[in-house]
Write a structure and sequence with these properties.
TIM Barrel, 11 helices, orotidine-5'-phosphate decarboxylase activity, OMPdecase, EC 4.1.1.23, decarboxylase, OMPdecase_bac
Length: 242
């Protein structure tokens, strides 16, 4: 773990899964002083564009730009160079895009003045065995995720996105990789469309470096209080793993 990741707020990423910039920035303001990291995903980026990322950066926040690139190698490399002008700290692409695509992305990122941390998305947390089987993947989610994670590491991708169920095995197999886990749900929170989930404490104990949390924070009656409770749970888990 990086020395900079010693505080719980450095490990919690709040997912701004909103349809427009106004709604997202209102929620950012409500969490002022609590959250350092915010995720900007596909829906919000298509609506608000680069200006929203720039506003977050101008306010001193760290940005996880979760666009999950998946295309031919040349297109993905160009996309990495394009969005890296916004200086996101982390940027995602699908490991299932294959080795040529991932190597092209890694080379593009390495050529930039400020290299974003690339994260390879292994198996989406909405996917279970039945979903994988339906698209022709015979392996169980954990097996497929690890296979893709190893491939990503071989291609120079230093970070992974996986469910908390796979985090421990990922950390054991690839100890130098940064592990980011969505599918985080406090014990009392609704599961929603996620299939492979864990509590914040369980994810930290499993080896996750960053936790991505959206609905349990933003759909709570008091988002700031919900975020604080998650931070306290992370703190407790960090203390017990020392």
């Amino acid at each position: 773990m990086s020395p900079a990741m010693t505080a719980p707020r450095d490990r919690l990423i709040a997912a701004l899964d909103f349809p427009d910039a106004q709604a997202a920035l209102e929620e950012v303001l409500r969490l002022e002083g609590l959250i350092q990291w915010f995720k900007v995903g596909l829906e919000l980026y298509l609506s608000a564009g680069a200006s929203l990322v720039e506003k977050l950066k101008d306010q001193g926040y760290s940005v996880f730009l979760d666009l999950k690139f998946h295309d031919i190698p040349n297109t993905v490399a160009a996309a990495v160079r394009s969005v890296s002008k916004l200086e996101p700290e982390m940027l995602t692409l699908h490991a299932s895009g294959g080795p040529a695509m991932m190597r092209a992305a890694a080379e593009a990122a390495a050529s930039l003045p400020r290299t974003p941390r690339l994260l390879a998305v292994t198996v989406l947390t909405s996917m279970d065995q039945a979903q994988l089987t339906s698209v022709g993947v015979a392996d169980a989610p954990a097996g497929q995720a690890l296979k893709l994670a190893r491939l990503a590491a071989e291609c120079g991708i230093g970070g992974l996105v996986c469910s908390p169920e796979e985090a421990q095995e990922m950390k054991h197999a690839l100890p130098s990789s940064c592990i980011v886990t969505p599918g985080i749900r406090p014990a009392e929170a609704a599961v929603g469309d996620q299939k492979r989930i864990a509590t914040p404490a369980a994810a930290i104990h499993a080896g996750a470096d960053y936790l991505v949390v959206g609905r349990p924070i933003f759909r709570a009656n008091d988002p700031a209080r919900a975020a604080q409770a998650i931070l306290e749970e992370i703190a407790g888990a960090m203390g017990s793993t020392k």
